[in-house]
């Protein structure tokens, strides 16, 4: 996927992903690639939050709305928490193209579970 995390923080997780190599047959960024970027960013933020409770974060629900097509360059995802609780987290992830235009809005909810033995 070529995702690079550029900022690591529970309050704002940022990453980029190239369009090249992640296109669907019509030459547009694949919607599933947007979903992968969104889940990666939201899951990392959730995992960082869960760590303080000795828990792990597991994806529970992901929804993506694709607003416009990206055809080239990099897209950037910014994940910010909507809710950081002891049992769930919810992040909104906004994906933009190189011109700063919103291409996708995603929402990820993770459930926080006890760490499995040996993890």
UniProtKB/TrEMBL annotation:
Any one Pfam family match given in the protein's UniProt record, by short name = 4HBT
> What are the alphabetically sorted keywords of the record?
Hydrolase
Q: Does the keyword Hydrolase apply?
A: yes
Domain Thioesterase as annotated: residue spans? 26-104
Q: Which InterPro entries match?
A: HotDog_dom_sf, PAAI_dom, Thioestr_dom
Recorded superkingdom: Bacteria
Name the protein family: Belongs to the thioesterase PaaI family.
Fetch the NCBIfam families from UniProt: unchar_dom_1
Q: What is this protein called?
A: Hotdog fold thioesterase
């Amino acid at each position: 996927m070529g995702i690079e995390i550029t900022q690591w923080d529970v309050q704002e997780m940022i990453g980029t992903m190239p369009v090249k190599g992640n296109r669907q047959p019509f030459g547009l960024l694949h919607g599933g690639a947007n979903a992968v970027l969104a889940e990666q960013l939201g899951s990392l933020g959730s995992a960082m939050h869960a760590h303080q409770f000795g828990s792990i974060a597991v994806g529970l629900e992901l929804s993506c709305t694709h607003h416009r097509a990206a055809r080239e360059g990099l897209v950037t995802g910014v994940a910010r928490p909507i809710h950081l609780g002891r049992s769930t987290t919810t992040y909104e992830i906004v994906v933009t193209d190189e011109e700063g235009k919103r291409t996708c809005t995603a929402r990820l909810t993770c459930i926080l579970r006890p760490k499995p033995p040996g993890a």
